[in-house]
C-alpha cells in the first residue's frame, strides 16, 4: 500500500523545501530574538509611552492568527504600496511574530531580576546599558530559556503556513508532490518526519548554545 | 454451461429486437415537432453563472439563456426553458423532455456516443491571463516572468508542461488565494479559467485580466438527440448566423467581459 519510491523523483523538491525552511528559521530566530530582547527592555524599563506602544504591538500580534498576519502583509500591504516577495513577506511575518512572543517571555525573565542587583550595579558605577548587558540580561534569559527555545520551535513549525503565499518551503514541497502523485500519506509522513528532525536539532542547538552562554556559574 | 449460453443468446436477441422496435418508433423528426408545437424546449443550467443562473427578478439569465432565446427567435417559435443540473442534462434530452441542451456542455468521446453536438457557441478554456501592459503571446514569452496558479489544478499541470525552467510558477493554495495574489498585484500573470477571469473583470474592472494565450480549450456545444440531421443543420446554421452577425461576440462581451478568443469557431 505504501509506496515511497513514487517520491524519489521529487527528492530535489523536498531538499530545496527543507533548505528554505531552515534558512527562514535561522534568520527569523536570530532577528526575532534580538528584536524581542530590545522590545522587552523597552517594555520593562522604558517610559510609559514606549512601554505602552510595545505592549500594543505585543498584544496585537499575540492575539491574532499567524496566517491572518501573513495574509495582511502579503495581500494587504500592496494596496498601500508596500510590495514584498513571498519570501520577504514570510520572513517579516515570522520575525514580527517571534519578536512579540519573545518580548513577553524575556520581559518575564527581566522581571525576576532582584532589585538588589540593580542597586549593587549602580553602587559599582555601572551605567544602565552596562548593568543590562553584563548583569541582568544573561541570568534573565537563562531563567526563561526553555520557554524561549519552545517558542522558537513553534515559530519554525508555524512557518509551514508560509506555503500558502507560495513560499517554497518544506510544506510547499509536500503539497506540490502530493498534488502530482497523490501519495499524500507518504509525502506528509516524510514531511512530518523532517519537521520533527528539525525541531529536535533545534532544541539540541539551543541547549548547546545555552551551555556555553550560561556557563558563568560553573566554577572551574 | 450450455444452458448459460442459450440464456445469453436469448437475451441478446431480445435486446436487439427491442432496439429495432425502438428505432422504428423514434423515426420522428424533432425539428418538425418543434415547428408543429411552435415551442422550443431547451434544457438550461440554473446554478452555473454566467452560463445560467436565476437573476434578481427570479428569471433565468446567462449565456445559455441568451443563446436559447436567439435560436427560438430565429426558428420563430416560443422558448420554453427547462432548468436542469449538469448530471441530468443529457438524460433530459434522451427521454425527449427537451429538444436541445444548451447547458455549457463540453464535448467528449463518451458523450458523442450518446448525443450529437452542434458547432461551439461559447468559449470555455484555461489560459494565461494578465495585466494589459504585459506582452505575452505564448509560453516562450513567459521566460523570466512569474505566473500565479492554483496548485494541483489542471492549469497548473498544463502550464508546467509548456514553460521553460526560467519561468517562475508561484503556486497558491486555492483559487481565492490565487485571485488575491493577482488583485493585490503580487503576481501580474495568472493561469486560470476564462470564467474566473470574467469574474475578476466584473468585480475589479480596473484590474480586468486580459487573455494572453490558451492552455486547454473545451468550448460549449449545443447537445441534441442522435441522428436528427435536420435539427442539427438548422441549429448549426443559426449559430453560424449568430457568429457572423456579432451576436455571439456581444453575448461573450456581456457575460464574460471579453470578446470571443481568436480562432474561436474555426
Can you describe this structure?
Chain A is mostly helical and 220 residues long. Chain A has helices spanning 11-45, 48-62, 66-76, 86-111, 115-123, 128-158, 170-181, 184-213. Chain A has a single domain (9-215), classed as MetI-like fold. The longest helix of chain A has 35 residues, at 11-45. Chain A is globular and about 70 Å long. The relative contact order of chain A is 0.16. The model of chain A has no long low-confidence stretch (mean pLDDT 93). In chain B, strand 3 and strand 4 form a beta hairpin. Chain B is α/β, with parallel strands linked by helices. The longest helix of chain B is centred in the first third of the chain and has 24 residues, at 2-25. Chain B has a 5-stranded mixed β-sheet with strand order 5-1-6-13-7. In chain B, strands 2-3-4 form a 3-stranded antiparallel β-sheet, with helices on one face. Chain B has 10 helices and 13 strands. Chain B has 2 domains: 26-123 and 219-256, Periplasmic binding protein-like II (D-Maltodextrin-Binding Protein, domain 2, 3-Layer(aba) Sandwich); 125-217, D-Maltodextrin-Binding Protein, domain 2. The interface between A and B is medium-sized, with 17 and 15 residues.
Summarize, please.
The complex is a heterodimer of chains A (220) and B (266). Chain A is mainly α. Helices cover 77% and strands 0% of the residues of chain A.
Number of strands of chain B: 13
Total individual domains of chain B:
2
What is the rounded Rg of chain A? 21 Å
Amino-to-carboxy terminus distance of chain A: 58 Å
CATH-defined topology of chain A:
MetI-like fold
What's the multimeric state? heterodimer
Give me the Rg of chain B, rounded. 22 Å
CA-based shape of chain A: globular
Listing every helix as H and every strand as E from the N terminus to the C terminus, the arrangement of chain B reads: HHEEEEHEHEHEEEHEHEHEEHH
Number of strands of chain A: 0
CATH superfamily of the largest domain in chain B: Periplasmic binding protein-like II
Strand pairing plus helix content of chain B: what structural class?
alpha/beta
Largest interface: A-B, 17 and 15 residues
CATH superfamily of chain A: MetI-like
